[in-house]
Amino acid sequence: MLNDLKNAFRKPNNALTQIIIINVIGWVAINLIYVISPSFFKTFSKFLFVSGSLTELMFHPWTVLTYAFSHHDLLHIVFNMLTLYWFGMLVSEYLNSKRLISLYVLGALAGAVSYILIYNFFPGAKTGMGGTMLGASGAVFAVVVGAATLMPNYSFHLIFIGPVRIKYIAALLVLLSVFQLRGMNAGGQVAHLGGALMGYLFVVSLNRGTDLGGWIHYIIDGFTGLFRKKSKMKVTYRSKVAANAGTNYANANRNSVNAGNGTPDQAEIDAILDKISESGYESLSKEEKQQLFNASKKEK
């Protein structure tokens, strides 16, 4: 079982599974510690759950992120992970795994900042907010709203209801959080709304050519690079491989043009699909998008 878990975690371009696995491991660890020693759990939680107190936050600044991988209640993690899976699949497929990670992290940070600001600068809102916050809800709301902003008319088939466009599902979840701001979990609802706003801004900015999560990609690449084995291949060999790949693509494109029908052949389509898998649909040039469109018309 442990080997299966490791293999699932290590698969490339598998950010969604990795995030879910980390959350599940966190939930198991937190509950084990709570059962074994409730007194130690109280101390331990300060190192994971984000506090509304600026003094506490000063000594545990990393909690603005770790809280989003921490759950205590079973229903809490089940709802968050199921929602993350449904909407995260769309983000991962159309924007790639790296951007799913950056959207999740930015949503978590936005949720924490929203909670801390409201807690400290609106004293009247402290009732029901509690002193600490945990759970992935803020990050999940960022993914939900991000997916709905990216593809508002995509539909999920809900049990007993049928197909429902995800923009309506996202709108309903946001409205529910607004309605519950005066409830027992006001702090959580504030985090939901902060994450939702970040999800919207993330996709809108991306459509305008700005990747808000670029700095996160840079940090992750730098960190993983420390543990990546350096290739023993010579630079000249890599250059030949790249040159051959470019030549093959150019030949495929030339063969398509020579065919005279304006429709790209299978080799060219495979190259475009590989590019989508690696960098997302938005990385395609106008010509590549047109080629993909022409191929889809041919299939019809």
UniProtKB/TrEMBL annotation:
The chain crosses the membrane at residues 15-35, 47-68, 74-91, 103-122, 134-154, 166-184, 190-207. InterPro entries: DUF6576 (IPR046483), Peptidase_S54_rhomboid_dom (IPR022764), Rhomboid-like_sf (IPR035952), Rhomboid_protease_S54 (IPR050925). Residues 61-204 form the Peptidase S54 rhomboid domain. Residues 265-298 form the DUF6576 domain. It comes from the Bacteria. Pfam families: DUF6576, Rhomboid. Belongs to the peptidase S54 family. This is Rhomboid family protein. The lineage of its organism: Bacteria, Pseudomonadati, Bacteroidota, Cytophagia, Cytophagales.
